[in-house]
Amino acid sequence: MIRLERGTDPQTLSLPFWKVESIGNDFVLMLEADFNEFLPDIPFLCDRKFGIGSDGILVVRREGEKVVLRMFNSDGSEDFCGNGIRCAAHFARVQEWIKDPFIIVHGGQEIPIHVLEDGLITTELGPATYDPQIIPTTAGELFDTIIPWSGGADLRGSVLSTGSAHLVLQVDELPEDDVFFEVSPQLENLAIFPERVSVMWAKMESSDHVRIRIWERGVGETLGCGTGATATALDVMRRRGFGGAVRVESKGGHLTIQAEQWDARPTLIGRAHVRFSGNLRHFVMPSRTTMQSR
Fold it and tell me: Distance from CA of residue 214 to its chain's centroid?
């Protein structure tokens, strides 16, 4: 097992890591033993100018024939992550920790994993829910309705959880940067979402193909989001009245989501990659005051 090597300075360490991604959603992956021994400054590690750079941190450990996963957004908040599951599954296969099929334990769920011969990875999540207590939201159930906000133009959509909370907005065209970067953080932080919400701007190309632009809570814009793509696909299934397969395309690539119906267990199909590995040696994390003053 690779362990941290402390230097003489208590803020100095050697940290092994792997850079992984799926549909452009990138993570710094670390072993849990290293993470627990010295809790790193997550925003610093995710910073694309001063750290390694990523949308979040994956922390993994092997537990018998299972893999246990935790995921942290770039702001340090812990979350449930569909693309992170796929990245952890690919990493575990590369490390020869397990044989196919296997289970990843993440966010209180046991998630079945299967790696196909062509490298595609299937992950089966738990059913989605529009239950306002689970999401959570104080606005009651929001399905295919006008979203209560005071920002001007009416926005129509739904709010559901696929392990993480998502606001899926139905739009005729994906927003340009000025609208996207102004409105998305306002929606993420609406008072009706006490734990915030990710925002999926979704344009229907056909009944089984949708393009999205993603604002992820605790991160900002990302090129891909597995749970967000799943929420979008299942909301499409509920609105169209039948299940099947939906192709969800984002800036970083596409996922296929399959389910018998919107409230059945969905299967995500996509790829993941280990892009490189490294070891941060003898670095000193800047103070939060320094980071915030940039």
Answer: 10
Give yes or no on whether 12-117+273-292 and 145-265 have one common fold: yes
8 Å CB contact between 232 and 248: yes
**Catalytic residue flag (residue 225):** yes
Cβ 200 vs Cβ 168: under 8 Å: yes
- What is the residue type of 144? D
The dihedral region occupied by 120, where left means phi > 0, alpha psi between -120 and 50, and beta the remainder, is: beta
- Cβ count near 1 (within 10 Å): 7
Choose the catalytic residue: 199, 225, 229, 255: 225
* 151, 186 contact by CB (below 8 A): yes
CA distance 185 to 93: 37
**How does DSSP classify residue 285?**
P
Entry pTM: 0.88
Q: Cα–Cα distance between 32 and 97 in angstroms, integer?
A: 14
The one-letter amino acid code at 1 reads M
Question: Hey, CA dihedral for 175, 27, 225, 186, is it positive or negative?
Answer: negative
CATH top class, domain 12-117+273-292: alpha beta
Write down the catalytic residue from 20, 23, 67, 81: 81
Fold type of domain 145-265: Diaminopimelate Epimerase; Chain A, domain 1 (3.10.310)
Spatial distance between the Cα atoms of 197 and 217, rounded to a whole number of angstroms: 6
Residue 215: band (very low, low, confident or very high) from pLDDT cuts 50, 70, 90:
very high
pLDDT single digits (tens) 255-265:
999 999 999 99
